Amino acid sequence: QVQPVESGGGLVQAGGSLRLSCAASERTFSGYSMGWFRQAPGKEREFVAGISWTGVITYYGDSVKGRFTISRDNTRNTVYLQMNGLKPEDTAVYYCNAVRGRSPVFDSWGQGTQVTVSS
Predict the structure, then answer these.
(1) Which of helix, strand or coil describes residue 90?
(2) Positions of the chain with pLDDT under 70
(3) Residue 51: exposure state from Cβ atoms within 10 A (0-12, 13-18, ≥19)
(4) Which residues lie across from 92 on neighbouring strands?
């Protein structure tokens, strides 16, 4: 199983924006709902956003609702996370995975991409 490759993270000031990308393998992308998760230092990994295979249904964690937007390009096996209005509490390593509801499907994770928001 090939792990996904997340990218697009960086250091941004509070109120700023970033767009994350996650390129997955055909086997772990095709036909699946996809989701973003994040893990801050000393905390458990938490669900951030999910999108159905067709892209029609999107859903979000309460802490990011109204600020983040998830999308996908099925021709590129890629899922995106547009993050606006970033806050210091959004600082974390962000990961993607196939999802069922708000739970990851696969045990294997990519390396993630670091997002750091300064106040």
Answers:
(1) helix
(2) 1
(3) buried
(4) 115
3-class secondary structure, 58: strand
Question: In Å, how far from its chain's centre is CA 11?
Answer: 17
Q: What is the pLDDT of residues 53-87, one digit of tens each?
A: 999 999 999 999 999 999 999 999 999 999 999 99
Q: Looking at residue 3, what DSSP letter applies?
A: P
| Whole-angstrom Cα Rg for the chain | 13
Q: Give me the pLDDT at residue 2, please.
A: 81
pLDDT of residue 1: 66
What contacts 87, CB < 8 A, 6 or more positions away? 14, 117
The per-residue pLDDT for 16 is 98
Residue 26 belongs to what H/E stretch?
A: helix 26-29
Close Cβ partners of 113 (under 8 Å, ≥ 6 residues apart): 6, 7, 8, 9, 20, 93, 94
Q: How far is CA 73 from CA 22, 30, 70, 79, in A?
A: 10, 11, 11, 6
